[in-house]
């Protein structure tokens, strides 16, 4: 015998007829069917129509009362993006820096200095409704970005759009995530600069950076003439990254207490990193007292040239006596954390034209490859970087593929089945 068909989740039943109470007022009720069961809503009015109107208002407000509005096929993608950000904020697995990375690619910047034409999800796809966000429409958007030379942005948009539309899938609005149907990004086959092909350039690069810091001209950057003296920090950061394999943001977050240069084996502990948080810190950058990943917390023994550079950096702090309340190895002039964007401008000036391909991350790859080639152990290289073996082998180590030993069969093929002659 069949039972009563359950009401759809998130809907209301039929309102009751207004019933006159002893005090002369009218009472009307309706049931709301939520995921936790049925819930009755009631309102009172001076007349039957007044009671109906009050209940209608309560039903309207009740639907908008949950933390976030319901997702429907008519929900715009920009509203879906806000829903995604709310979910990320409620998930401890995502840091404020992670959420800021998503937010920055979703919304057009309100900064007057920002280029309003910069492609964001808000000004490119934000007004599309969920049902309009087909695989074809999303594929065209990503291909437009790629054609403009914005391949990295296209990949970021694909990640964010997938997460946004997965919310619509969970809410039963669509059956399949349309991002699954877009064309995959083809892997570009380019030489891995900064790995095997350019490892030998490190001594020359270090020499050029020192020449720049002394005020000399380097290819692409004229000699120092006037203004603030050039910043030697870039020299010390180069020696720190190449001597440890640290991430650039980890290098700028090193504390003086993390270093022991007088130990039998001088070392540095990686205890934090810089993250950008909207509206706080120096230009939005703050020090997070934990590395980027679980593998990131590590102690690294320092080579002699890195020890010499760090001693020079510490000596400079003692001489200059600039504010440094956090005890940073490389503080900004006002004592806060050093803005990586500002440091990037110094880096580009010091590298000039001859080393235009070098980024702070380039020699992190070189560290991994050098260690792996010396010891034939990707696990050792991964621990140096604070990565897993899989990540290090995929993104940092440049190792030629070793083919199986086929010498015997090729020998027989060349000489025939008889004995060697």
Helix-strand layout with pairing:
Layout (H helix, E strand, L loop, with lengths): L10 E2 L6 E2 L5 E9 L2 E9 L2 H17 L12 H13 L6 H11 L14 H4 L10 H13 L3 H20 L31 H12 L19 H12 L3 H4 L7 E2 L6 E4 L2 E4 L8 E4 L9 E4 L2 H17 L19 H12 L10 H14 L2 H8 L3 H7 L11 H9 L6
Antiparallel strand pairs: 1-3, 2-3, 3-4, 5-6, 6-9, 7-8
Helix pairs in contact: 2-3, 2-6, 5-6, 7-8, 8-10, 8-12, 12-13, 13-14
Helix content: 40-55%
How confident overall, as mean pLDDT? 82
Q: Give the N-to-C terminal Cα separation.
A: 91 Å
Largest sheet: 4 strands, antiparallel
Strand content: 5-15%
Gross geometry: elongated
- Radius of gyration over alpha carbons? 31 Å
Q: List unreliable stretches of 5+ residues.
A: none
Q: What's the order of the H and E elements? A: EEEEHHHHHHHHHEEEEEHHHHHH
- DSSP summary: helix tally: 15
What structural class is derived from the secondary structure elements?
alpha+beta
> How many E strands?
9
How would you describe this structure in keywords?
about 425 residues; alpha+beta
What this model shows, in words?
The protein is an alpha+beta fold and 421 residues long. Helix content is 41%, strand content 10%. The chain starts with 10 loop residues before the first strand and ends in a 6-residue tail after the last helix. It has helices spanning 48-64, 77-89, 96-106, 121-124, 135-147, 151-170, 202-213, 233-244, 248-251, 304-320, 340-351, 362-375, 378-385, 389-395, 407-415, and strands spanning 11-12, 19-20, 26-34, 37-45, 259-260, 267-270, 273-276, 285-288, 298-301. The strands form 3 sheets. Strands 1, 2, 3 and 4 form a 4-stranded antiparallel beta sheet that branches. It has a 3-stranded antiparallel beta sheet with strand order 5-6-9, with no helix packed on it. Strands 7-8 form a two-stranded antiparallel ribbon. Helix 8 (233-244) packs antiparallel against helix 10 and helix 8 (233-244) runs parallel beside helix 12.
């Amino acid at each position: 015998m069949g039972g009563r068909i359950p009401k759809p989740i998130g809907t209301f039943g039929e309102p009751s007829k207004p019933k006159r109470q002893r005090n002369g007022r009218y009472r009307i009720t309706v049931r709301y069917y939520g995921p936790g069961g049925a819930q009755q809503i009631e309102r009172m009015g001076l007349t039957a129509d007044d009671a109906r109107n009050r209940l209608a208002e309560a039903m309207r407000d009740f639907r908008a009362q949950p933390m976030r509005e319901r997702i429907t096929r008519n929900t715009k993608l920009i509203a879906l993006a806000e829903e995604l950000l709310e979910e990320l904020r409620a998930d401890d697995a995502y840091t404020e820096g992670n959420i800021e990375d998503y937010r920055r690619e979703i919304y057009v910047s309100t900064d007057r200095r920002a280029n309003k034409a910069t492609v964001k999800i808000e000004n490119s796809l934000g007004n599309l409704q969920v049902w309009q966000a087909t695989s074809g429409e999303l594929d065209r958007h990503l291909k437009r970005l790629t054609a403009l030379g914005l391949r990295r942005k296209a990949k970021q948009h694909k990640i964010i759009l997938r997460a946004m539309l997965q919310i619509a899938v969970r809410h039963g609005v669509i059956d399949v995530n349309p991002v699954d149907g877009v064309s995959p990004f083809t892997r570009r086959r380019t030489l891995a600069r900064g790995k095997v092909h350019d490892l030998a350039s490190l001594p020359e690069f270090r020499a050029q950076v020192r020449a720049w810091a002394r005020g000399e001209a380097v290819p692409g950057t004229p000699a120092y003439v006037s203004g603030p003296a050039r910043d030697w920090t870039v020299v010390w950061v180069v020696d720190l990254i190449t001597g440890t394999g640290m991430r650039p943001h980890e290098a700028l977050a090193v504390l003086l207490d993390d270093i022991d240069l007088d130990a039998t084996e001088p070392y540095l502990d990686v205890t934090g990193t810089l993250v950008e948080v909207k509206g706080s810190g120096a230009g939005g950058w703050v020090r997070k007292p934990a590395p980027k990943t679980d593998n990131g917390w590590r102690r690294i023994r320092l080579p002699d040239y890195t020890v010499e550079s760090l001693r020079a950096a510490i000596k400079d702090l003692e001489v200059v006596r600039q504010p440094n309340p956090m005890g940073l190895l490389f503080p900004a002039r006002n004592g806060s954390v050093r803005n990586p964007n500002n440091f990037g401008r110094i880096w580009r000036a010091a590298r000039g034209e001859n080393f235009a391909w070098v980024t702070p991350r380039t020699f992190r790859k070189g560290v991994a490859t050098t260690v792996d080639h010396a010891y034939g152990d990707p696990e050792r290289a991964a621990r140096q970087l604070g990565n897993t073996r899989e990540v290090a082998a995929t993104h940092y180590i440049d190792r030629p593929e070793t083919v199986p030993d086929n010498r015997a069969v090729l020998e027989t093929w060349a000489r025939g089945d008889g004995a060697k002659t």
